[in-house]
Amino acid sequence: MTKPIIGMITIGDPREHEWNNVFKNLALDRHEKAIKVLKQLPVELHTFSELPRSIEGIKEQVAKLKQQQVELFVLHIACWTWPNLATVAVQQMDLPTVLFANRETGSHATVGLLGAGGALNQIGYPHIRIQENYDDPKIIEVMNDKLMPTAVAAHTVKHLRGSVFGLFGGRSLGIETGTFDPMQWKQLFGIDCEHIDQLEIIRRTDYIEDDRVEAMVKWLSDHVGGITYGEKFTPDAFKFQVRCYLATKDIIEEKHINFAAIKCMPDLTNHYTPQCLSAALLPSPFDSEGIKEPIAFACEADADAALTMEILKQVSGGMATMFADVSHLDPEDGILYLPNCGAYSAWFAARSNDAKENLSKIQLKEANRPAGGAITLFVTAPGPVTLARLTRTAGAYKMYVIKGEMVTPEKERHEAFSKSRGKHQLPMSYIKVNMDFDGFVQSFDSNHIVGVGTDCIKEIKAVCQILNIPVTVVGEE
After folding, report:
1. What are the beta bridge partners of residue 386?
2. 401: β partners
3. How far apart are CA 273 and CA 380, in angstroms?
4. Measured distance CA(58)–CA(84) in Å, rounded
5. 139, 157, 175: which is the final residue of a domain?
6. Model pTM?
7. Three-state SS across 107-129?
8. Which of the listed residues 134, 157, 180 is the one where a domain comes to its end?
9. Same structural domain for residues 219 and 123?
10. pLDDT tens digits for 360-373?
11. Are residues 311 and 412 both part of a single domain?
12. By three-state DSSP, how is residue 219 classified?
């Protein structure tokens, strides 16, 4: 994953007398200190040695920053400067914006910060304000906490604009919340949609090289915890599933698709094979062909789930993402039961980038579907998780976020849940949460939820702020 690209401008006072006799040396010194601070962050920084003091000078530096494809604008207020110059700079950049100033008594930065911030609020331009002492030993910790979530969010929003969503098939099982409006996505997120017929996957299986199939089958057979063949899950059926995965992977690469969703049920599960290997391996950072970038991949043609997964992937620095059904709620013990119809991202089996470690926890079992094939059966490994979901109310988007912890269930709990499902066994995640379960039932607008194995709530909130999407974080007052 690439670093967020930040552009910084420090504006000086236009008045010759005050600049030369009061502010120049103060501003230049603090400009260098601000650069030193920002260079210690995991970002790509672009700035200048000169401090513009006029609209013409500001426009010149803005033009140069735009050539560098800057994603976040930092307006550095070293001393007092005229607020109208701040609004010109911000409007010319037209990016997510941070006002950055020092706390020093004699720098006049506070009055400059409040003047600039107030002016931006008068014109309705959203921004955040950071005021710290640059020589404070904790400055990097503070900047990681205050600036980096916005930088990551700006990087994510920039990535979404111009990205491509691949939709294999159409609405699945009548799930209305899985549908979306491609033109609304273009308007709000700048995302293009590539529609692909599911039969294109099946057609392409005939052209997948045998050696690739054999290598993938051997890799899985050697490393998974076990394979239980059955009447409709045979070695030949296994190879066909592998061909489907490789065909899907190839289509995604050829069409430059960034994230995807597939209908799968009931067409493919009834007549061909479930796409569970794709759902397990595409969102994971590995397969038999080596280390790869995870591809956010949602089941049942759930576009908004796939988009949420892509956001989680980006704000987490490229981590694997999960897709699940909200199947059962246990308010007494505070646990969400989240299975999926046949696959989770394989990364969650052990939370390791070592494929062998994850696969050793996974069983391939016969699917409870008319066409047979395999599902990946395992319980996700313990660890932190951020659950999220974009939903719509009367066409308007909102984001729902839950901080949770994947836990290893007591043997009795897992056995009881498995027994209740009979033959229909699925990969499972048990997630400990602190929330109002009745409120969740009343307000959560999807049967699907997605997640990533880290805490990235600040970054999600920053993304939603940039996109002007309301966000509800469960447990926050």
Report:
1. 403, 452
2. 388, 473
3. 24
4. 11
5. 157
6. 0.94
7. CCHHHHHHHHHHHHHHCCCCCEE
8. 157
9. no
10. 999 999 998 999 99
11. yes
12. helix
